[in-house]
Specification:
heterodimer, A: 323 residues, mainly alpha, 15 helices, B: 4-stranded antiparallel β-sheet, 4-stranded parallel β-sheet, globular
């Protein structure tokens, strides 16, 4: 029998708020999380503008704006509350733009943003439910649909430098003498507009870890996975395989370590699963770079690791006192 | 506002003594799920039995003031004080041998005697403050040592432990006669019984181990020394501890202590992590309450019926290593068997999952809901069988 609800002592003068425990809470919210993630992208954005000109900002702007509008439309069509003010759509739109070459056409940024939200998130249930990192879904979609428009070397022909990973792929380790690692680190290299800003992304990533918005497990194990696998190949034959530092400083390795791999929805939740996830993704990066046809293995490596997430999450400790 | 600075520390910096709060004119004692032993209109003396606990070992409830029962409903009994000191006669416990009769007498005086009902090899006394913001335990260790030791002696007569350990926060000077000391880092959730037992024994849910809190011992000691039933509780408000008659309406405390409560605020009885937000200032304090907190409206992001974003903070913060993210979803869709498979029954209910949830989901609430539903299902099956 359900006991009768008697609010005999309810009070009109002071109406108290009633809610379940705990009554103190950390002040984590989705809005704050996304705001901090956007803030962490600011140094890379600034460096991207310095490196590639105002065009970098316009691509990020288009992608971000279109992503927000797409999210609003998708939510409206589902009769859900339109909560685009939590910045999650904006953030993922910008993430997609960061993977684009500076010379990419504006419509590509727009289509990519639509795909990020609609195909990357909404069809799986919206923010937080996507099994694969949403900007990478869009990246793969565009990379396969418009290979020329997404090609980094082709779209940055006006710069008097080469895309390091294309050089490695097509001309081998001997061609790498042209790259100064210090320049690569500071972001003076070709690549995605934001994803090539190694130093600036590192600053943003460390900010996110220091403020507790991402845990160190995935970034660290990812970088260890990349460095370890690269060292293995390099140790086998340094005249054929590039050194580990080159793999970390080029392509979107650092970008992935701090921004793509730790994507909340598509990465595992436990500590050991997160470490395994990072290692697998990192190992895959180098394997794809060495054996695959795409110069930068990062996007596909992360997507493959994303698909393993539910499996990895089964690696869990026994509960307290459990048998 | 210092209260909003969130920290997990269980340390307390105690300088004051415990302050007695005088009984109000009218008290409200919650009696839902208790066996009522009095009725409307009855005149009762202070310390007279008003209700019994339905379980085998639960302690009885007594009138904290002398007066007349004016209201009785399913939830509460209201007693209007007559202002006199009309009190029941003390029970002489020293004449009783250790055994069933003494145990029943203690139960009748308000002690939950479940921990005393059988012998055990190891007795652990939890001397850590239960939650951040509550300093009752250390305050009692500081100023009521004699009473606690009397309680310990009585507890040992029943439990007959080979070893007694007092768990205290690291660096604190508190000691008990005849108990070894185990220092524990004073950081929530280390004060939970299960985690204290693990720190002391190295095992999770160890066998042959009994754990009692300092407050339990203090209450037993008080009964042993006075022969009178338990009619008050000790509560931390701010940086001071108060002895408060059971059933004292929060309104009385708010007025007496000059707290500020306005509409929209939350008033929490118990701790900030596990306590209960009351709906009315007329609610009376209960035996198990050791803290009173006023959480101002807007201090914290409100709990939402939002979807999980899989950030993993609940899992990474869980001291019981359970999948709170999945359990809460299974509970939400009433798939309780799956919730059990992911560790529901290992949950220690510390509240850290909801505390850290980015999506602001009521995780602890879902867990408690699932536990209750399963318990009720079990009870239903037993009745049918």
């Amino acid at each position: 029998m359900t006991p009768p609800v008697i609010k005999a002592m309810s009070d009109v003068a002071v109406r108290l708020t009633v809610s379940p425990a705990p009554h103190w809470r950390s002040k984590r919210t989705v809005e704050k999380m996304m705001m901090c993630h956007l803030l962490a992208l600011v140094p890379a954005m600034a460096m991207a503008i310095y490196m590639f000109g105002i065009r970098a900002a316009s691509l990020a702007g288009i992608a971000g704006a279109v992503a927000v509008v797409t999210e609003a439309v998708c939510l409206k069509l589902q009769n859900r509350d339109i909560n685009v003010d939590n910045y999650s759509a904006l953030y993922e739109g910008v993430l997609f733009a960061f993977l684009l070459p500076a010379g990419a056409p504006w419509w590509l940024a727009a289509i990519g943003a639509v795909v990020t939200i609609a195909l990357g998130r909404t069809v799986f249930g919206g923010f937080g439910c996507n099994p694969v990192c949403a900007p990478l879904v869009a990246w793969a979609f565009c990379r396969l649909s418009w290979p020329q428009a997404m090609d980094i070397d082709f779209n940055t022909a006006q710069f008097a430098m080469n895309y390091p990973l294309d050089q490695l792929k097509h001309f081998g380790v001997d061609s790498l003498y042209q790259f100064d690692y210090k320049n690569l680190f500071y972001g003076f290299q070709l690549g995605g507009i934001g994803s090539s800003q190694v130093a600036a992304l590192l600053v943003g990533g460390i900010f996110l870890i220091a403020t507790g918005w991402i845990r160190i497990f995935i970034p660290l194990s990812f970088l260890i996975g990349v460095a370890g696998t690269a060292t293995l190949f390099w140790g086998i034959d340094p005249s054929v395989y590039a050194d580990p530092l080159f793999h970390i400083l080029t392509g979107s390795t650092v970008f992935a370590a701090f921004f793509l791999a730790p994507d909340v929805a598509s990465s595992p939740v436990g500590k050991i699963p997160q470490i395994l996830f990072g290692l697998i993704a990192g190992i895959m990066v180098v394997i794809i770079r060495v054996y695959g046809i795409y110069p930068d293995g990062v996007p596909f490596a992360i997507m493959i690791a994303n698909l393993l997430t539910p499996l990895l999450d089964r690696v869990r400790p026994k509960p307290f006192g459990g048998r | 506002m210092p209260m909003l600075k969130i920290h997990y520390s269980l340390e307390s910096d105690l300088k004051k003594d415990i302050v007695d709060i005088p009984a109000p004119d009218e008290i409200n004692i919650r009696v839902s799920n208790l066996v009522l032993k009095t009725g409307k209109g009855k005149k009762i003396a202070k310390g007279e039995l008003i209700a019994e606990h339905p379980s085998r070992f639960g302690g009885a409830y007594h009138a904290p003031v002398s007066g007349k029962v004016t209201k009785v409903n399913y939830h509460h009994i209201t007693i209007k004080s007559d202002g006199t000191d009309n009190c029941v006669e003390p029970v002489d416990l020293s004449s009783l041998e250790t055994g069933k009769e003494l145990l029943r007498t203690l139960q009748g005086l308000g002690v939950d005697v479940a921990p005393l009902s059988s012998a055990s090899r190891l007795l652990i006394i939890n001397g850590l403050n239960p939650e951040p913001g509550i300093s009752v335990t250390e305050q009692l260790l500081r100023v009521e040592l004699k009473t606690i030791e009397a309680g310990l002696e009585m507890a040992r007569r029943f439990i007959a432990p080979e070893q007694t350990v007092l768990a205290v926060s690291a660096g604190s000077p508190y000691r008990l006669d005849g108990a070894e000391i185990k220092q524990i880092k004073p950081k929530y959730p280390n004060s939970l019984d299960a985690l204290v037992a693990k720190k002391v024994t190295g095992k999770e849910f160890p066998e042959e181990t009994r754990i009692m809190s300092v407050v339990d011992l203090y209450r037993i000691g008080k009964i042993v020394l006075s022969g009178l039933p338990i009619t008050d509780t000790t509560i931390t408000v701010g940086d001071t501890n108060y002895h408060i008659p059971l059933g004292t309406p929060i309104r009385h405390l708010v007025e007496y202590l000059g707290l500020e409560v306005s509409s929209g605020d939350k008033v929490v009885l118990g701790g900030p992590f596990r306590g209960e937000a009351v709906y009315s200032l007329s609610e009376g304090v209960k035996k198990a309450d050791h803290g009173l907190f006023v959480v101002k409206a807007g201090s914290f992001p409100a709990i939402e019926d939002a979807t999980c974003i899989n950030c993993g903070e609940c899992v990474l913060n869980c001291p019981a290593r359970i999948q709170a993210n999945l359990i809460s979803r299974y509970a939400e869709f009433e798939m309780f068997d799956h919730a059990v498979r992911h560790g529901l029954h290992s949950c220690l209910e510390c509240g850290l999952c909801s505390f850290n949830c980015t999506a602001r989901r009521p995780l602890l609430q879902y867990i408690r809901f699932a536990k209750t539903q399963l318990m009720n299902q079990g009870a239903g099956e037993q009745e049918q069988g």
